[in-house]
């Protein structure tokens, strides 16, 4: 039997999360998608030591990691920074829909956002385009989104839609859209390239099993699937 070890913190205790057994590392708090991202970053050697990192809705496991490795080069943003009172770094308030356009272009080497786009009351295309704009030339953006087994994305940006209706329609009370497979075209149209990375292009099944991540390449794209965009020049 394979011993499951978190690749981020080396913890070996896992617990249930959202009806998924052994999904959460009880040491660093990482979920499967966080562990996949970490493994991809290690495999590809990003971010570099000198890189400036911008992180939206930061997970504790990555806050701890990047605060240690990049110190003042790491900046974390969230719409509700009060959630991070015990964080190792200051998480600043930032509304992507309202504040992104005011950020300078070509400023960041690495941008990370994990299951963020489904929460935003604004255009996914505009957000992705804006994030690409603030990346430095040759900078990298990595992100994941929950993709469901349906052809078309549905969304409702009505701010007065009740939490009950949101949960009924999108699965969570704080979601405004449910991504279908057509989001692959949306992302390609927004960024100009296909930035989906199939897990089989980087990993073997054994690596996922050891990290406590279900090996389901036949079900991709899904909520653990990695999108990696590298900016080739001015956006």
UniProtKB/TrEMBL annotation:
Residues 72-143 form the Methyltransferase type domain. One of its GO terms (molecular function) is methyltransferase activity. It comes from the Bacteria. Keywords: Methyltransferase, Transferase. This is Methyltransferase domain protein. GO terms for biological process: methylation. The lineage of its organism: Bacteria, Bacillati, Cyanobacteriota, Cyanophyceae, Oscillatoriophycideae.
